Amino acid sequence: MNMRSLSALLVALSLALAPQARAQQLLSGEEQDLANAAFATQLGSGVYSVSGRTLQIYRLPFDYTVRDTSPSKFGIELTLPVTLGFYDFELRDVAEEGLPTGIDSLSLVPGVTLRFELQPEWMLEAYAEAGLMRAADIETDATVYSGGLRSLYDFGGAGFDWTLRNDITYAGFNFHGDGGSAHFLRLQSGLTARRSFTRESRIDYLVYVVNDVFLQQPQGPIDGSERGGSTVQFELGVTLGPSTPTRLWGIPVPRLGLGYRFGPDLQVWRVVLGSPF
User: Is the pTM of this model over 0.90?
Assistant: First the structure.
């Protein structure tokens, strides 16, 4: 399989593959659909339980580097994560009903990331993003926002390229009108190990582990503290992707993988598109 064929396959799989998952229901009524979808925008791709319905979330990462980072100046990157949501759709439905004809929820959340090189192997990033979230069957939409600071430290060992990541994120949403709002504050620590299959291989694999500590718990698809949710969570997973940045039809080819998130009263499998974090 050549690189172009593999890139096309990764893009197709990223839009079609979905594992099974379960999570607590935290909000009730019509607003729960929008609230869960809004927080899924921040918490990543996956399959969630929402008011007895299945909500599949796919986050497509798009970005553009305005200025590269160097020791003498900070880098600038513009981001535009596009998040698609589908209710009551499963992969096995494709054989009988075909692909979904409509999108049940959509969010566009542009942002900017500033990168500072503290040392050649140590990067500090400050980021912020804000945009709109809309659900097809809800008569309102929401403003979604987030911001934070992250540290990335790269090192080598045992034939792998390692990255130690620490991140603090504040995120939330506001319903337009009188629908209220919700937010969360999260500390995240993660470790990744990346390696090519062979010296000649253009594809590599990345194994990761992550720990989340919610100082303020979200009322979204990954459960919440008000109903005995998990303020401390863990995730293990693996992703595959091009060893160097690759574009297909001008669109960045995302990494594709699978992660398992767990904690007290929590078990979630999720599709990983792009970065696992």
Answer: no
